[in-house]
């Protein structure tokens, strides 16, 4: 972890120049308030980091690269360095690359970029370094996201997914948006036209102690979102329920056992 972080700081402080046309900035300097913005030229981190990454035309053909930890680290920095949330489709692609690496390598990469494994799984940082719960998040721009997507064309694990995403983008651009009608009611249309094949009961029985608490069931279901090799890094209480935990919750929050939504959500997740 220390070596990875030192590697990033060394590159930032030495020779990461700006790739924006007609910009003469030869060294990225993180901003005090916005780390992704260079104090020298006011251009973003991605515009600088691309000077250390391969250009699209070099791997536009069918040839792909083997996934290495150092390369994944550099690509991760495009979306994780100085941010607090990850665009969904980039996280899907990054999950694929992480599934090839060792568990220790994944954790080292995340820690070096000031992300925890729990925050990464969630897709956004829950608290800042001072422990304050965030209500707004720094995230890469759409233009930076498009540039970063091209980096995933380098690997066989993600190349075909990026190509499909590109096709979806083209299809979306071809859609003509009609003039908005003030009388349109989307909710009424969907409710009247949708055939619901699954109906959840209005009431469900409160689970017994042997079945565990609703929230434990939900967390167990969420564990399936992890890449397989990362499951071992999740603390044991998150992957298994126990009677003592349920009893404690009943004593402290007796009303929780009568709540319906979490049990319904766990059914959906399963």
Automatic annotation (TrEMBL):
<protein>
    <recommendedName>
        <fullName>Basonuclin 1</fullName>
    </recommendedName>
</protein>
<dbReference type="GO" id="GO:0005634">
    <property type="term" value="C:nucleus"/>
</dbReference>
<dbReference type="GO" id="GO:0006356">
    <property type="term" value="P:regulation of transcription by RNA polymerase I"/>
</dbReference>
<feature type="region of interest" description="Disordered">
    <location>
        <begin position="242"/>
        <end position="270"/>
    </location>
</feature>
<dbReference type="InterPro" id="IPR040436">
    <property type="entry name" value="Disconnected-like"/>
</dbReference>
<feature type="compositionally biased region" description="Basic and acidic residues">
    <location>
        <begin position="249"/>
        <end position="261"/>
    </location>
</feature>
């Amino acid at each position: 972890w220390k070596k990875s972080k030192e590697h990033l700081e060394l590159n930032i402080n030495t020779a990461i120049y700006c790739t924006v046309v007609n910009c003469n900035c030869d060294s990225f300097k993180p901003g005090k308030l916005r780390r992704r913005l260079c104090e020298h030229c006011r251009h973003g981190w991605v515009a600088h980091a691309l000077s250390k990454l391969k250009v699209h035309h070099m791997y536009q053909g069918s040839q792909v690269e083997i996934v290495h930890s150092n390369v994944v680290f550099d690509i991760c920095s495009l979306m994780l360095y100085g941010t607090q949330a990850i665009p969904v489709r980039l996280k899907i692609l990054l999950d694929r690359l992480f599934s090839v690496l060792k568990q220790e390598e994944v954790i080292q990469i995340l820690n070096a970029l000031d992300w925890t494994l729990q925050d990464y799984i969630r897709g956004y940082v829950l608290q800042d370094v001072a422990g304050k719960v965030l209500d707004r998040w720094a995230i890469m721009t759409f233009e930076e996201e498009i540039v970063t997507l091209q980096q995933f064309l380098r690997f066989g694990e993600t190349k075909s997914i990026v190509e499909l995403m590109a096709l979806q983008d083209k299809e979306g651009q071809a859609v003509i948006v009609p003039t908005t009608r003030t009388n349109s009611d989307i909710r009424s249309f969907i409710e009247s036209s949708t055939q619901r094949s699954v109906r959840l009961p209005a009431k469900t029985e409160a689970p017994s102690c042997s079945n565990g608490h609703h929230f434990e069931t939900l967390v167990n279901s969420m564990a399936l979102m992890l890449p397989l090799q990362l499951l071992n890094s999740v603390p044991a209480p998150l992957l298994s329920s126990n009677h003592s935990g349920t009893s404690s919750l009943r004593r402290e929050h007796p009303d929780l056992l009568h709540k319906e939504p979490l049990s319904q959500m766990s059914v959906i997740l399963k």
